Amino acid sequence: MQTKNTTSNVAHLLHDTGLAAWFGGALMGTVGLNAAASEATDPKERAAIADAGWVKWSPWSAAAIGAHLAGATLLTVTNRRRVVAQSGVGSMSVAKAELTAAALGVTAYARYVGRQIEKAGRVPVDGPTRPSDETPADVARWQQQERILQWAVPALTGALVVAGARMSEQQKPGEV
């Protein structure tokens, strides 16, 4: 019994701290980093400043996502009987897995789009996700996509936080 409790504690720690960092990093990048980079005096520095911040964050984000996935896997394995037997837990697990897949896909695509903007070099922009009249057309298209993606990642990871809270409630005696 001690081993299962220890495994469960480690699983929750990995799952929750990984998700917190994934969600928080994406949200801070959107409302903090991108907004701050928009204030750079030189329009050619705005996207470059944001790109530099996202590049520095990327390994930490990958570690956070990895921790979350490891914790989610451990929790699923540890609770496999409850997932199958308890009403509502299996369907919630499937929904959470689908949300996780969507968040992973959007996160990966957002990074890809960011790399395309980064590859363009120092071009004039109004902000990291807002083109100016002088922004090359291809960069403007990537920025328009990034403007949507930057909000999709915290929305999806925020939905994962809600799903995790619901799954925690399913463990209470009144739910079992």
Give the quaternary arrangement of the chains.
Answer: single chain
* Count of DSSP H/I helices: 5
Amino-to-carboxy terminus distance: 20 Å
Shape: elongated
Write the H/E string, N to C: HHHHEEH
What is the count of β-strands?
Answer: 2
Q: Overall pLDDT, averaged?
A: 92
How much strand content do the residues show? under 5%
Largest sheet: 2 strands, antiparallel
Structural class, please? mainly alpha
- Low-confidence parts lasting 5 or more residues at pLDDT below 50? none
**How many whole angstroms does the radius of gyration measure?**
19 Å
Q: Main sheet: which strands, in order across?
A: 1-2
Tell me the helix content: over 70%
Task: Describe the model.
The chain is mostly helical and 176 residues long. The protein has five helices and two strands. A two-stranded antiparallel ribbon has the order 1-2. The chain is 81% helix and 3% strand. The model has no long low-confidence stretch (mean pLDDT 92). Helix 1 runs antiparallel to helix 5. The longest helix is centred in the N-terminal third of the chain and has 36 residues.
